[in-house]
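Example record

One chain of 732 residues, shown exactly as stored in the release files.
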Amino acid sequence: MTNKKNQKPLLKDSVGFKLFKIVFSIYFSLSIIITFIQVLSEYRFAKNDILNELKEIKDSFKEGVIGAMWRESPEQVKTLAKGILRLPAVKGILIQDNFGEVYANFGRTTKKKGTQFFFEDEIFWLDFKLVKLKGEKKTDIGTIRIFSSRGAAFQRVKFGFYLLLIFAVLKTFILFWLFFWAFKRHLIVPLNNLANAAKAINMDRLLKINIGIKREKSLNKGNNELEIVEDSMNSMIENLSNAKVTLDKYSSGLEKEVEKKSKKIEAQYQDFKNLLFNLDQGFLIFDKEGIVKAESTEITKELFNTDPMNKKVEDIFQLSSSEKMNFNKWLSHVFKNLVPFKDLLPLAPKNFDKLKGKVVSLDYKPIYEDNKSKKIDKIICTATDVTEKVKLEKEAQLEKDKAKRISNILDRPLEFLDLMNDSEEVLDHYNKNIRDSRPDKIFRSFHTLKARFASFNLNDIVEAIHNLESFLNEIETDWSITNINKSRELIDYINYSRSNFIKDNNRLIEIANNSINNSDDSGNVISLKNHINNFFDVYQKNFILKEVSFLFKQFISPTMELAKQQDKLVEIKIDKSDIHINPDSYKELFSSLLHVFRNAIDHGIESREERVAKNKKEMATLYIFFDRTGDTTFKTIIKDDGRGIDPKVIKEIASQKESFKSLAFDKLSEKEIIQLIFEPGFSSKEEVSEISGRGVGMDAVKTEVESLKGTIKVDSKVDIGTKVEIVLPIYD
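Predicted structure tokens for this chain:
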């Protein structure tokens, strides 16, 4: 294998040759430019000569043409025109009178009008007025236009052009070799010698090296740049030699210091590793592709039952196909940095419960490239084992259900005892007569029982009946022996669940009987009922229910962030209320309500300049307040003082959409037209953005409201503002 260090540099790689190419390229370019200017100059001279010739031709034939046209002799005019056309400089001729009648049109001509001189499509021409003198009176009788061409001009400069070209090529060839000889003799060869001398330097024998350049005799006179470089390199070699001795002494001490520092770093790393391994939380750090990049702790591997290193998060979480699609959409939006991370956080997976008997809570934090750009580089996911917490919450929920069940039974003892008796009769009847019964009749009987048991929170029995209903739905009218036996098994299980409840709640049933049959026990019943109700109220208020205005505070931060992005000033006011609700019952609704606030900022509230122009305060107001509309319902109003919704605009947009073609817009009131914003696919935005434009926002809100058996409507006035009114049941 050839040693590159000892190879001679190729001529094409030489600095001198590269400099030569640059110098000669500049010269060559200038030579081409100068030659072109010379040719252009010659062409212009030739063109001017042709123009002068055209004027002379005009003067020669003018009188004859005027006489022929005055005598109205077209044939004579054509004869004169053909005579003019035979002249070398003439490529076309056009003669016409003042009325536009053409007397002669021969050769290359154009009908485009112009001033005295035109240059277009290789044709140029001169126009001359034809004037008949009669005494002192002048009469315009027409015009004569004589055409020539670029080709006629080039014919005249062709010989001179060839001479210029030959001279330029010859001059360039001679100068190329002169330049090359001079550069090679005075620059390329000395630099090559210097390079070879530099390559001979050996760091192990610096003291024995002295660079000397073999130069042409012409270079030996006085000091030049190459000689200065030679002296400088020899001085550098001497300094390097001295530095090497010092460096050798220092390196031996440095090796010991590096070894010492390495041991210290290794100990710190081990401490950090021990810290991570002993934490009770797992950590996953993943990139925009969703791939885990960092080392994970032992607890992480235990929580997910796998080593997550270099695996996709979607696989670690064991997501379904639809969940994977939603997760990847969320991941894409996060790394686009168009929407604040905290606004997108609710869309990420919250729990991992794919391992039996284990529930892991998931939380996410962004890792930024730097503090200035706030561009997300990676995401850290913290995983916490909440199995015990979830277990306790379930136990608390069971206690809550138990308390509710007792309270309902004590409230309606007669109804409860009737249910127990009726259910016994139904179960006994179908156990004996199931073969003679129809599936649809059994379904109706047990469906009624299910509703009655559900009213007393007897969930185990309700579930058992639900299983029977599902089976009867599947078989429809197929009353085979197999299906009859299966139905009997399910009915037996209902009876089993009912018997277990009676067995576990004998005292409660006894109290219910006594409350009906013996008024003396009414005090005990009331006392027990009050005790249960007090327990239930305390549990609800302390552990479950939240004041509704408190729940709306979650929208303040994302709304203000969006307003800041759009350079809008907004103040959010939330009234307090005495209404308490179970947030779990409204979870999906509160996720969708963000659309209302984002629409208020994006569509409703004007820019600062627009508000000032309308004599409004520069700072807009978003006002949220609540009111009871009954014992079991409440109203939420979200109001802004923005530009409002113009029903004319809504009508115009809706009429252009295929899904609204069937609507009779003329019969709709303005309020009814405004309600169209809740329809699927409706959007007043022409372009889709990260904020709005897809037509799914208000539709999603309406869907969630109606799923809770509530109502939603919007009222708006142009330049006054918009009010969204939501009426919902109070779920505890």
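Notes: The chain has a mean pLDDT of 78.
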